[in-house]
Amino acid sequence: MNPVAVHRVSFDCVSSFSSIRRESGGGFSGARIVNSRGRNRPTRRLHAAVTASLITSADSFEVGRLIGSYGFMNVTSYSGLKSGAEFESTSDDIGRLKSQDIGEGGVKIRLYEGRISQGPFRGTPITFKVYPGQRAGGIEADMMAANELNAHSFLQSNKNLPDNLLILVGGFETQFGEQWLAFRDGGKDSAADYARIASEKTSRARSRGVWNPYEKEVTMKRRRNFVITILQGAMKGLAYMHANDRLHQSFGPSSIVLNTPAESEAIYLIPRLRDLAFSVDIRPSCLEEGAASGALSEQLWRRATASGAFTVFEKRAFGIADDIYEAGLLFAYLAFVPFCEAGVMDSLSLQRLLENTFRLDIEAVREYCLADERLEEAVKFLDFGDRAGWELLQAMLNADHRKRPMAEAVLSHRFLNGIVK
Known about the structure:
alpha+beta, seven-stranded antiparallel beta sheet, three-stranded antiparallel beta sheet
C-alpha cells in the first residue's frame, strides 16, 4: 500500500458495534444499535465472544485508496420452464431467462484498502467494504450490512473455521450512516477477475498466429489445475457454511476472492468466500412458521413454497439445493470463460445456453459445444475422467432440487480429486 495514499479516519463517527446497549439483562438478544443521531436500529442475536473481539473504534484503522465498487447481482435458481401450449403462447419470451429474476441491486458497495493502526495487530492489511447510508442505499443497505456482520459473527464463532472464508476483523459506522466492515486482506482479485485475465491471455496468444503446441499445453494444464483449486476452495467454504446452518445465497465468481491470480502460483492459492449480505440462517428454530420471513430471504422461501417445500426440513433442503445450483453455475462459468477467448462466453450468455436453449440437458450442451471450435478447451476440460466434469455439472444443475448433491458430495466427486491433468 502506498503510504502517501493512507490517511487516518478523522471524520466524526461512532461504532455501531461498540455502542450496543443491552436493554435486556442477558446477551445480545433484544439489543439495539444506537448511533450519534439517536437512530435506533433493531439487531439480530450476535455471538457475544466473537462480537467482543471485533475492532470497533474508527481510530484503530487507516483507510487507503479506493479499490473499486460493485452492485450485488441477485439471481434466483431454476424453477422450470413452461411447455406445450402455454409455452407456445409466450414464444416472445424465448431467449430470456424465464425462470430467473435477475438484476443488479440498488445498493452500491465500495471497497478500500486499509490497515489496522493500533493494538497487537497494528500494520495488518485489511479491505474495507462500505455500505451506503440509508439516504443513498435505503433501508436495504443497512439490512445487508447487519446481515453480513451477523453471518460472520456466527460463522467465526466456530473453532474449526476453514481458510476458505474471508475473516471479519471489525468495523464502524460514520455520522452519515455508512457501514464500514473491515476484513482481513484475502487478495484484490476475484474469480471473475481471474477468468477475465485468463481469457485475455488466450486472446493475445491466438492473435499472434499459430500457438506453439507445447506452450499451449503447458498453459492449459496450469489453467485446469488453477480452476480445480478455485472450485475445491469455494466448495470447502460452502460446505462449512451449510454444516453450520448458513446459506450463502450470493455464490458466484465475484463472491470468491483469490490471494493470487497467477496460474503458476496455484500451490499457494487460497480461494475465500465473501459477500454474505444475503446469507440465510437455516437453523430449525429460524425456519419455524413466521421466523423465516425476513426481507432478504423472502424471495427464497416464496420459491421454496412454489417448489413444494413446506416443512422446516423441506425448506432447509431447498435452501441448500439452491446454493448448490448457484455453485453449479459457478462451475460452468469457470469451465468455460477462462478457456475461451475474451468475449466468446460470459456468465449470462452461458446461463441462457444452459437454461433456455437446452433446459439443463447437459449432454445436449456438450454436443452443441463440440461443434464450436472456440469452446474446444472447455470441452476437453470437462471431458476428463470419461466426461466426469459434465457428470458433475449435470448433478449440480439438476432441475429437480431434491436430486442435487450436498457440498460435501461435490467435494468428493472424482472430477475434483486428481483425474484432471
